[in-house]
């Protein structure tokens, strides 16, 4: 998904669930680690963790967008828009936004490294290093994590 597609999606969710236009910018921020998104008080823009689109399905992304839009619309309406206010809790519940971003988990368990060229392989399952060699240089693989 591109930033432009995200922008369109946020605009759509805003109109559909809040009945109000989203007039600022929504972009992906790959530096966000554990949070699903962020509403920036200073410029009213919304940032979404790209991992949320890579590791979870669309409903999770929509839930996060709704959460950030609660901050957005409350803030623009003159409220603080903080999590612990009754306005935030009420609005979040009304639109069905997510309270927390899901934890981002690694989608691999094992890391192998080629002993010749150093290329790394991330795998969900263990691989038999006696049977499989590096796809690039045929070097031996070694389990490093
Ligand atoms: Zn929040
Ligand atoms: Zn190699």
Shape: elongated
- Radius of gyration from CA coordinates: 21 Å
**Integer count of domains:** 2
Average pLDDT, all residues:
90
What topology, given as strand order, has the largest sheet? 1-3-2
List of distinct ligands in this structure: zinc ion
The CATH topology of the largest domain, please?
Zincin-like
Q: In the CATH hierarchy, what is the architecture of the largest domain at level 2?
A: 2-Layer Sandwich
Low-confidence stretches: none
Largest sheet: 3 strands, mixed
Q: What is the N-to-C order of secondary-structure elements (H for helix, E for strand)?
A: HEEEHHHEEE
Structural class: alpha+beta
Total beta strands: 6
Look at the structure and give the CATH class of the largest domain.
Alpha Beta
Number of helical segments? 4
Distance between the termini: 30 Å
Spell out the CATH superfamily of the largest domain: Metalloproteases ("zincins"), catalytic domain
State the share of residues found in helices, binned by percent: 25-40%
Percentage of residues in DSSP E strands: 15-25%
Protein name: Putative metallopeptidase (Zinc) SprT family
Domain SprT-like: 4-144
InterPro entries: SprT-like_domain (IPR006640), SprT_Zn_ribbon (IPR035240)
Pfam families: SprT-like, Zn_ribbon_SprT
